[in-house]
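WARN retry 2 of 3 for item q-0093 after timeout on previous attempt; input resubmitted unchanged.
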Amino acid sequence: MKRSIVSLFAMIYFVSCSDNRPHPAIAFHAWGTAGSELGQFTGPRGIAYGDKEIYVVDKSARVQVFRTDGTPLRQWTLPDQTQGTPTTIRIQSDGEVWIPDTHNSRILVYTSQGDFKRTFGSHGREAGQFSFVTDVAHTPDGTFSICEYGFDDRVQQFKEDGTSVRIFGTHGRGPGELSRPMAMVYYPPGRLYVADAANHRIQCFSSEGEFLFLWGERGELPGQFRYPYDLDIDAEGSIYVCEFGNHRIQKFTPEGKYVAQWGMAGTGPGQLFGPWGVAVPPEGGRIFVADTGNHRIAVFEIDGRSDAK
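OK item q-0093 returned
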């Protein structure tokens, strides 16, 4: 087994919006190279943190699990790669691994060890049916939301047993309308944030699907986006946005106020190339990035300072 882990201690800067002075990250690490062996990747896209482990799904429809230092632990392959491969992966509080099988219009559910449990959904436009399913977000009471694009740009919500509760969102550019929703995170006591990728913005809805507010527009400045493809949230409610087009991660308060950013286009330390996914432990301190174009996992060690009051 070939394995490549790089540890690069560098002054990697982000800019605070409160005082406009640069503050360094502590370090940058990366692991992985292009390839098909354990510890290698073919365009890693989905990434998730669960029980002190990192789960990654790549374009070869392979799930790999690592310790947070990059040590590979196990892997498994998804059942059908002919139509395309997933873009996200999520770990639930009970340890189940939920994978939106994007091009097969369904959710795949596994144990943390890779044992297949069940599927949810089918192809179509009715409740419980999907076109290109992109993400799933669970709430503490067991209900869950699934976003999709294709036939419809929308979010469907379900009870724990899979019974349909509601559907909201439609294709468009107005508030509450969506264009290729790619990712979601839930924040208690009842906010659902959606990465509205082709509209280059983040939208916030209530847990009942009511539009609350949005932020962002197409651009490269702090608080602007170019194809936000993934979201994660820490225990304080800080929102981390992974931008495919701007090759960076941005951090925001729960109200959408810009805090910091990491990354720029490139292949070197602190750089990213077309990243698709971001994962942050609840306690913060580290940002794990599916650095898709560089076929690696990038890790920003951060000092945990919040400059937004």
